[in-house]
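[Discussion] Sanity-checking designs against the backbone

I'm trying to build intuition for which residues belong where. Below is a C-alpha cell string of 322 positions. I'd appreciate it if someone posts a full sequence so I can compare it with mine line by line.
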C-alpha cells in the first residue's frame, strides 16, 4: 500500500544559542529567522515551512529555554510550553560544542510530558575537533531520556541534515499540506523588518550591549517604488542609548545601513529607514509595548511618552562613488 504525503507541526527547542535559527534557515534554504551569537535572540514563535516531495513540515523556531525573570521572558517560555502541546514532532537541539549543563536537564524536564516523537540533535559538530567528545553528551542524554534517538548535525556544513529530513518525514503523520506550496514563512514583512534591525543591532554592538533591546516598527508605508519605514530601538538605560547611537551617530547609521541593504535585497524595493532610540527602564515588563512588538499586531495609536533622541534616517539610496 502506497503511503500518502506527510504533514505536521515541528518544534525546534533548545537552550539559548543552541543553533535553532541557523538550523531552520539551513533546512529552508533561505533566511526566515535572525541569527546571533548572543543568547535569547529568538523571542517569538518564528514559523518556517518546508515543502518536500514527501510532504510538508511547519517549523516553530521557539525562544531558547531559560528560567524567566521578566514579563517578556515569561511570555517567551509560555510560547514554548504552548507549542510543545500542539506539535506533531519535537527536535531537541543540544550544543555539542559546550559541556552538558543543568540547563539541559531543566529542558529535559520540560519535555517529559510531551507525547510527540522527539529527536535529539547534537548541533555545531563542525566546531568539535575531537568527535569522541560527543560520546559523554550522548551518554548523559541517553541516561536521562533513553527512549529518544540522537543525531549529530552541522547546519553550517550540512552534515546530518539529509538524515534529519529522512527521520522527520518518517515521524510526521500522514495528511495534506497545512499551507499553500511555495510559502516559506507566515511572518509579516513588518515583523521581518524589526527582526533584521535587531539582528544588525546585535552584530554591531557585539559585547558592548546586552540582549535587553527591542525593536518596534511604528510606520510601514509603500509609495510607488519606495518603502518608508520608521522603527524605534528600545533600551533600558541612557548609557545603552549612547552605545547604540555611537559618537556622532556613527553606530546607529551603521546599523541602519546594514539593515536597509539586506531589506532592499530581500524585499526587492528601495527603502527609506528611519531609526530612533528610546530609553524605557522597564520595557521588558511593559505589557502594552510587548503586545505591540508581537508579530502581526497593529501598532496602538499614541506612543509612550519616553525620553528619546531623534536620529536622521538612513536614506533609501547612498550616493554613488565617483
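Best answer:
Here's mine. Compare freely.
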Amino acid at each position: 500500500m502506497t503511503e500518502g504525503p506527510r504533514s505536521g507541526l515541528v518544534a525546534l527547542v533548545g537552550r539559548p544559542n543552541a543553533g535553532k535559527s541557523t538550523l531552520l534557515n539551513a533546512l529552508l534554504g533561505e533566511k526566515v529567522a535572525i541569527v546571533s551569537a548572543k543568547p535569547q535572540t529568538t523571542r517569538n514563535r518564528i514559523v518556517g515551512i518546508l515543502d518536500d516531495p514527501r510532504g510538508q513540515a511547519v517549523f516553530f523556531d521557539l525562544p531558547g529555554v531559560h528560567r524567566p525573570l521578566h514579563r517578556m521572558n515569561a511570555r517567551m517560555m509560555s510560547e514554548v510550553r504552548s507549542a510543545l502541546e500542539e506539535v506533531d514532532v519535537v527536535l531537541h537541539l543540544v550544543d555539542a560544542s559546550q559541556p552538558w549543563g543543568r540547563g539541559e536537564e531543566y529542558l529535559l524536564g520540560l519535555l517529559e510530558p510531551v507525547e510527540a516523537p522527539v529527536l535529539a540533535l547534537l548541533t555545531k559538530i563542525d566546531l568539535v575537533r575531537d568527535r569522541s567528545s560527543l560520546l559523554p553528551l550522548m551518554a548523559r542524554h541517553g541516561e536521562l531520556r533513553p527512549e529518544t534517538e540522537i543525531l549529530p548535525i552541522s547546519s553550517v556544513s550540512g552534515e546530518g541534515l539529509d538524515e534529519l529530513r529522512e527521520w522527520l518525514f518518517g515521524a510526521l503523520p500522514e495528511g495534506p499540506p497545512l499551507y499553500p506550496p511555495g510559502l516559506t514563512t507566515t511572518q509579516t514583512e513588518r515583523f521581518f523588518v524589526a527582526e533584521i534591525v535587531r539582528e544588525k543591532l546585535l552584530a554591531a554592538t557585539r559585547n558592548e550591549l546586552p540582549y535587553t533591546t527591542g525593536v518596534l516598527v511604528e510606520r510601514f508605508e509603500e509609495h510607488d517604488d519606495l518603502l518608508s519605514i520608521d522603527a524605534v530601538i528600545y533600551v533600558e538605560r541612557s548609557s545603552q542609548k549612547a552605545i547604540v547611537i555611537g559618537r556622532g551617530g556613527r553606530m546607529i547609521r551603521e546599523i541602519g545601513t546594514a539593515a536597509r541593504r539586506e531589506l532592499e535585497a530581500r524585499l526587492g524595493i528601495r527603502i527609506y529607514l528611519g531609526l530612533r532610540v528610546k530609553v524605557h527602564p522597564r520595557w521588558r515588563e511593559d505589557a502594552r509595548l510587548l503586545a505591540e512588538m508581537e508579530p502581526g499586531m497593529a501598532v496602538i495609536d499614541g506612543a509612550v511618552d519616553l525620553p528619546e533622541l531623534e536620529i536622521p534616517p538612513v536614506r533609501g539610496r547612498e550616493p554613488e562613488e565617483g
